[in-house]
Design brief:
The protein has 384 residues and is an all-alpha fold. The protein has two domains: 219 residues, Citrate Synthase, domain 1; 97 residues, Cytochrome P450-Terp, domain 2 (Cytochrome p450-Terp, domain 2). Helices cover 57% and strands 3% of the residues. Strand 1 and strand 2 form a beta hairpin. It is globular, with a radius of gyration of 22 Å. The two termini are 27 Å apart. The site of acetyl coenzyme *A has 18 residues, from helix 16.
Length: 384
């Protein structure tokens, strides 16, 4: 750009704030109809996947574009079992930091560290990258359980051969096998959080992978991005809010006061859905059922009240994080683990997108509409 042009430079008026509605790439993994409130993984409706499949089948689907045969599923499960082991050095680091860091920070550091203990860490063949994806799916539940146990000075619990990812996670977390109903709820939660097109954390993974950096680096970017309360961190923030409200009688005034201060109510609103998030719909039913079963409907009913008020006032709809909070709370899971559990599921979608990015890569590098000062001379420091 010559000097005259730079002096007269005016930014393009067409910038989409937050990249809203910008199609930033092509993908075959996930489709969202934001108007109708539908979510498909590789053409399969999320509701049907929750009813008829397991998280392991969905992981296979996201990576391969097809649901597995019985043999393919067995093979994947064998591979996951083979990689269910954390290097002792990695466990030592978890022990060192889990008491002083947020679980998402410990998870991010741990995933980053795993790269140093992967013998094929630098290998970039599709086969090696696929194996890294399997390793991460196998290890994330172990890391999340290890975070909880080490910060409470409890011994780690080894995964039990033959248990599903959902069942093993609850087992490693609590030290006893969960009942099949709770396992089913956890499994359904993992299916529903597995992928969501070009959400912020997946996009971060793809940007990193797009430089041809490695899988661990790309996933580390994703974890850091998921942590924020406008994204995955909202599930913990919802439970904080419910506890702060404390009593259903206070819910309406609480929400109203927040809206008056123009503050956001966590668990509502979405960049793509303009109606109820289909995952929230399913989680709402699960939360209702779980509340009845456990004889503890306080949090479900309070969530319903907040929904009623904010929907009447602002026309906003729940997103996936809203009912996740009351479901995990009633399952007895510590609140600050909710986002890490989200990551334990989303690792499947992140890695699917990273592999897809490598398959047909082009560096992701948009431009900025410059609005800073025009060209000007540098004034020497003693003259400023
Ligand atoms: C897994 C996930 O990531 S799901 C999302 C989880 N995040 C949350 O639940 C946090 C709360 N929600 C939000 O902050 C937003 O709805 C987001 C981040 C999800 C989407 O953001 P955007 O698409 O950028 O919408 P934006 O923040 O511009 O909101 C548009 C309007 O709706 C309002 N709005 C959106 N969400 C909310 C909310 N949760 N509470 C109150 N008002 C809201 C905004 O104040 C804004 O109103 P205005 O036009 O009068 O200023
Ligand atoms: O798609 C988004 O922007 C956020 C979301 O719901 C998810 O990542 O599951």
């Amino acid at each position: 750009m010559n000097e005259t042009k730079l002096n007269n430079y005016k930014p393009e008026p067409s910038v989409a704030a937050g990249l809203e509605d910008v199609q930033a790439g092509v993908s075959e993994i996930c489709f969202i109809d934001g108007k109708e409130g539908r979510l498909l993984y590789s053409g399969y409706d999320i509701k049907e996947l929750v009813e008829k499949t397991t998280f392991e089948e969905v992981v296979y689907l996201l990576w391969n574009g097809e649901l597995p045969s019985v043999e393919q599923l067995h093979q994947l499960k064998r591979q996951i079992a083979e990689y269910q082991s954390l290097p002792t050095e990695v466990v030592d680091v978890i022990k060192l930091i889990s008491k002083r860091s947020a679980p998402m920070d410990t998870l991010r550091t741990t995933v980053s560290l795993l790269k140093s203990f992967d013998d094929e860490g630098e290998e970039m063949t599709p086969e090696a990258n696929y194996r890294k994806a399997v390793k991460l799916v196998a290890m994330l539940p172990m890391i999340v359980a290890a975070i909880e146990r080490t910060r409470n000075d409890l011994d780690l619990v080894e995964p039990k051969p033959g248990l599903s990812i959902a069942a093993n996670f609850l087992y490693m977390l609590k030290g006893i096998e969960a009942d099949p109903y709770e396992v089913r709820i956890m499994d359904a939660g993992l299916i529903m959080h597995a992928d969501h097109e070009f959400n912020a954390s997946t996009f971060a993974c793809r940007v990193t992978a797009g430089t041809l950096s490695d899988v661990y680096s790309a996933v580390t970017s994703g974890i850091g991005t998921l942590k924020g309360p406008l994204h995955g961190g909202a599930n913990t923030a919802v439970m904080d809010m419910l506890l702060e409200i404390g009593d259903i009688e206070k819910a309406e005034d609480y929400v109203q006061a927040k809206l008056d201060r123009r503050e956001k109510i966590m668990g509502f609103g979405h960049r793509v859905y303009k109606t109820m998030d289909p995952r929230a719909e399913q989680l709402r039913e699960m939360s209702r059922e779980l509340a009845e079963r456990q004889g503890n409907d306080k949090w479900f009913l309070m969530t319903e009240k907040v929904f009623e008020v904010i929907n009447d006032e602002k026309g906003l709809w729940p997103n996936v994080d809203l009912y996740t909070a009351s479901v995990y709370y009633v399952l007895g899971i510590k609140m600050d683990l909710y986002t890490a559990i989200f990551a334990m599921s989303r690792i499947s979608g992140w890695t699917a997108h990273i592999l897809e990015q490598y398959e047909n890569n082009r560096l992701i590098r948009p431009t900025a509409a410059y609005q800073g000062p025009s060209l000007r001379p540098v004034v020497a420091i003693n003259e400023r």
